[in-house]
Amino acid sequence: MSRSPKFLPAGKIKSKVLASLLEKYCSSKGDERVILGSQIGEDAAVIDMGERYLIAKSDPITFLDYQQGFYNKIGYWAVNVNVNDIATCGGVPKWFQATVLLPENNTTEDLIEEIFKDIHTTCNNFGITVVGGHTEVSTGLSKPLVIGCLLGEVEKGKLVRTSGAQVGDAIILTKGIVIEGTSIIAQEKEKELLKKGFDHDYLNKCKQFIYDPGISVLKEALIANQNFLVHSMHDPTEGGLACGLFEVAYGSQNGILIDYDSIKIFPESKKLCKEYGLNPLGTISSGSLLITLDKDDAHNLIKLLGENGIFASKIGIVVKKEEGLKIIEGGKKTTLPYSETDEITKIF
Q: Which of 3, 33, 173, 275 is the most buried (most CB within 10 A)?
């Protein structure tokens, strides 16, 4: 008697499953020009192009439902999440392609133009050239999907890897967490939240989190990498800060010790997460950047970022692998829970 198939939840594929697949099918191992290929936690691929490294990244926008007048922002979103992964490698983003898939019987030419306009405007603001892609109206879709592919460059001596974290490193977090998640919740649940008594202006402020404090980490990544010997950088996206920290630990084969009270959570983020029973540490957090570097450089980096208008704080340290992933809250040290399934999935 055959077993019923086990369907997977929304979100990232479990790390153990993905690691097994990469071990079986990764084809980059024999290519000497591939400096960094498919690995758990690494944000992009790196290819040797002679004088410089080429950084390649592909990332989709999925955690959004269709609402007329909002989907032009999907272009802004798609560019930024790919830019962030080039930035965490220490690189400069250069060339962008987008695959835009649109739902049948729910797509207008005006909507397509809005998405195109936002992609091109966002790329222009970053100095990125749009070099192509693909657009179609597809059957079976309930909402638009945009899959970005971005290429960038980095000097060979400035390449940063998620796996580069070293024991004794300070762990720096920029801005705060749940920036992206706050905007998504306010947008997707606006009507429901208004009925619950939330104010229009309050929700509009939350929706604008993608712009202020913003989901881009390019500025802080460049400041850090140009002025300090950065050991690793990583942006916590799906699975939030907790999953991002796990990926740093997994990639570097180290442990991590975090101080909960040092993590900045915006009041708006706390309120919306509480409303829907979401753990802020596990909620999608584009806009935050994790940086590890020598503990003696931590204060100066935080100061320099502050001078450039970017809040940052030391939230923990990298420890030996056998110490595991731990968090101190209320004076008590416990295991830091994480999941590849983002908390944001609970609202859909």
A: 173
